[in-house]
Amino acid sequence: MIPREFDYEAPTSLQETLQLIASGERKLLAGGMSLIPMMKLRLATPDSLVDLGRVPGLNHIVESSGTLQIGATATHHDIETFPLIRGRCPLLAEAASHIGDVQVRNRGTIGGSIAHADPAADYPAALLALEAQIRLVSASSDRIVPAVEFFLDAFTTALEPGEIVVEVLVPAEPGAEGYSYEKAPHPASGFAIVGVAARIQRSGGKISLARIGVTGLGARAFRAMEAERLLESGSSLDQAVATVGEGEDANSDLYASAEYRKHLARVRAKRALEVALRRAS
Amino acid sequence: MATTTVKPETLVGKKVRRREDPRLITGTATYLDDIKLPGMYHACVVRSPYGAARIKSVNIKPALELPGVAAIFTGDDVKDLPSVPCVAQLPGLRMPHHHMLAQDRVYFVGHPIAVVVARDRYLAADAADAVEVEYEELPAVADPEKALAPGSPAVHPQWPDNTAFTFHQEGGHIEEAFREADVIVKQRITSQRLIPMAMETRGVVADWHAAEKSLTLYSSSQAPHLLRSLLAGIFGIPENRLRVVAPEVGGGFGSKIDIYAEDMLMTFVTQRLNKPVKWVESRRENFLGTIHGRGHVDYYELAAKRDGTMLGLKLKIIQDLGAYLQLLTPAIPTLSVLMMPGLYKFKHISADVIGAFTNCFPTDAYRGAGRPEATHGIERMVDILAAELKMDPAELRLKNFPAPEEFPFPTATGLAYDSGNYALPLKTALAEVEYDKLREEQKQGRQTGKLLGIGMSAYGEICAFGPSPATPTGGWESATVKIEPSGKVTILTGASPHGQGEETTFAQIAADELGVNIDDIVVYHGDTQLVQYGIGTFGSRGTAIGGAALYYALQELKEKIKKFGATLLEANQVSLSGGACIDEKSGKSVSFAEIAAAAYRALKLPPNTQPGLVATHFWEPPNFTFPFGAHVVITEVDRETGEIAIRRYVAVDDCGKIINPLLVAGQVHGGVAQGLGQALWEQAVYDDNGQLLTGELTDYAVPRAHMMPWIEASHTVTPSPVNPLGVKGVGEAGTIGCSPAVVNSVVDALSHLGVRHLDMPLTPEKIWRIVQAGGQA
Ligand SMILES: Cc1cc2nc3c(=O)[nH]c(=O)nc-3n(C[C@H](O)[C@H](O)[C@H](O)COP(=O)(O)OP(=O)(O)OC[C@H]3O[C@@H](n4cnc5c(N)ncnc54)[C@H](O)[C@@H]3O)c2cc1C
Fold first, then answer.
1. Residue A196, in any domain of the structure
2. What CATH number does residue A87 fall under?
3. Strands of B112-118's sheet, edge to edge?
4. The complex's ipTM?
5. CATH number of the CATH domain containing B690
6. Considering CB atoms only, which of A1, A4, A267 is closest to B284?
7. Which residue has the CA at smallest separation from atom 1 of ligand 1?
């Protein structure tokens, strides 16, 4: 429970940070809620840490022309409680409220969570359903990647060496939208056995838009596109959710087998959609 | 002299706030890891990653060369020292020598191989990583039933059948019962391996004073005197030169009664280095190297009459012992045998216990220690019998309880239940939930697919360990009461509370007996240099035995106080009340403080009386106590997901007289949390290679606050005749009553699908599969 010896640097500007990590050898430290436990178990043994905590201008939460810009070091607690997010992107606030406990939400950051890309993390489901984008910056580049292209595999993202997540861009929700995040937490870790984020827009009694993000089921979070399509073309909820996770290689552990997880994903998807439908005016 | 005094209100039975809390809440209590001695070294233990392996070589050289490393010791250095002790005795018990560091083999994951001592704990951890151990992995066995099967790998090569002992007990004529029976129900019931998970892990600071040849050992222990006696014997240190201190102890649940390899190792290291040395267990080590609990596979057979009269009970227990025998390991399943009849009037019992070695850490006493297993078994069997007879489970229970006038009630296992009114808590709990209405709701609900469960347990437990002949550690307890010259009162108890709150309850008892203000009383414990010899805190014994010892010490003192009072008042006879001695004839009185001053100033001594006001009492109880109660749990099962929601949890416990209802509620709540943990979430799972798959808190599901239902706790009060306080003990009640009530409730919810039994933990997937299969497990 004691990490290996490591160096520690706390740069005070983004420029400096990018230079420090340019070589790809140093590891970023944000809230430390995933990295430090791994270091204490000596599963991660970085030689050098670069702390993002003192870099200014990385934890903003603002809206600009219909898009919410959420800085990488905004904490889960910020996202859960900020009026702007609760008002303009309640799905993300709801997902954040399901993460860990108060202490974890006070320290952990959205940038750290998505960079870590735990297959059972909560944000990815919401970000996929929200069709969010992620801005990645390095000393020599600045690019925007859609969430679907960001989460590649368990603990694997589109981040290149020397790159850092600087912000998450989420389209602000039109008021009439319905949403819900349904999570079945593991009783020990609190992470999602499965978590389903749903968004629904209705027009004239029909579902005009459906977005479903699923986490915990497989190696990476994914969008249940077939179910979305079925819903948008008038199929029943049952028909739609029956396709959730089809073809996915489901995780399996002591607590929940692949078969049960898949079943649970469908039940939870249905419940998330039911709530979202109720909320959509 | 004052002529009037105000009698303070009595405190026993009142919700007095815990006096230990301010230091705990403000973070100023001193736990083991807070102890820092000048020049102290830090130790880290190198542990086996294998469940079974031959050690081919241990190379400490690269580690020794690292900066700050003072010494490294391996198995060879300690090979001549005695075994880690087990004090339980059974006929024919096979006791492997449990070296504090592995010799040529390792027997479980986490087995200590070497101890690295360095200037700080970081260097120690780095150096421990640098110790090179070469292993040859051997086949392991982690499941007790597999261990007993022919051809299984031998945990200890000298005992290929992996059998540590067999134990048989009989009462009445079991075959007769089964001949007379109209119905016989049988079931295999498991109580899974659990990890006690005290909030504070273990730790030791050992400090050898070479010049005095004396040792001070701080250890997060529930039984410091026992630790002192055993260490003294192992290391040949005179007991009067060995001081053991249990500082603030952050929970034990039985896991800190034991003497561990690390207590011995640190004693060894400090003697070798002449420096104080500290070892603090990491959470990972706590999973791997602190005792586990339960680990039963039980086979039950119950014989009954068609009218529900229970006749006989047969039980075969396969106890997963682990690789070694810790302090009480083999004794725990024998407690299950003692309590196998539960609260029912069985005339005939027969029990067999087989203790199986496995490549796992040893099991030992964990909250309830043998009684949760027994209660879970009998309470499940009663429900199974009720289903077989198509009888209401409450009615079946009520039919088989002894009546209040049958106490002391002799059991077929040779016990005498002290006092009881077993029907009362059950009836109270059922009335509380409106049982009949619920059954109606259940019936209605089933038509629409709703799964509502109504489950109950009527539990009894054996507490206050215990008469010394039945308790391997000795079963009495001690108390000293000192009235200081100023009239302040100091209590020294041989019990060793670690969360139970006796600093409060013992002060309540003394305040009432002496008639003094509770703020004038301080209770000390846990330091063998300060406190007279004692046994410790476990088995719900603290108040029932330690409190009784205190009561008798107080009576002795009261007599002496009255003698001094009579002398001061120049009266023949005085009474002691309201903190003063009163001459009934003249109405004159003399205060407690004045008497204390006079007893130490010693100007005028009563006849045949020496100065001072100190009394010590050692009390040997004549019997155990037998608390009881009923828990009723209403569950709703989500048929789509298998998830279980607890709608109501009603606990009606009878722990005899209640000294402090706040503390009793705390014990019930904590106990229920651990019982629920077993029923729904917790399990220590070793794979076939002896790897602990649930070795982190991310995998091992301890209930957290948000997972707890609201507990509606109330009490009936049946005083115990065993001790003068009338108390029975409540430390383990919640755990014992809980798991069968929860499982009975969930089985009840699914009973119309044909479900008769479910093994714990009741994970959603398990339930979902059963519902899917229409009840077929
Ligand atoms: C007890 C507990 C319970 C938890 N429960 C949940 C849960 O229920 N659901 C859930 O989703 N999560 C849970 N978590 C994880 C938590 O959300 C973490 O906060 C999160 O995964 C990591 O964020 P962090 O800021 O703490 O990152 P850190 O731990 O500091 O870093 C994580 C990784 O991301 C990298 N990194 C950090 N910031 C950036 C950046 N801006 N750009 C690029 N790389 C970066 C680091 O180098 C590191 O590799 C839990 C954690 C704990 C300790």
1. yes
2. 3.30.465.10
3. B69-74, B112-118, B41-47, B277-280, B203-209, B214-219, B242-245
4. 0.95
5. 3.30.365.10
6. A1
7. A100
